[in-house]
Specification:
Layout lengths: L2 H15 L2 E3 L5 E6 L5 E6 L8 E5 L8 E6 L8 H12 L3 E5 L2 H12 L5
Parallel strand pairs: 5-6
Antiparallel strand pairs: 1-4, 2-3, 4-5
Length: about 120
Amino acid sequence: MRESTIQAQVRQAVCKSGWAVVTRCNTGVAEYENRDGSKRYVRYGLGRGSPDLPGMISKGPLKGRVFCLETKTATGASRTHQLAWARACRKRGGFYAVVHSKEEALAALERALRGELQ
């Protein structure tokens, strides 16, 4: 299954649960041409290594807590910048998990609601 398909299924399942909201957040650099013909570059997204699906817990005692999911295929592996982002998120009390399916995402959500970090 493609990662984009997994992301869509995970996003739908988490949001449908009513306990959290997540959204797709692309990152990268866009090139624009100025009026004088020169080029400028604009970075977008949450930064290199940020999760595919950032969001937050939407109700309960942990309402407002950062909730981030990185989606991977069965053979996908986290990269150095993704691991650093996950550590930074958890160090500050947020939840960050790598998931491969909507079932894993919902299990991650249960852990987040218990106050776990991953």
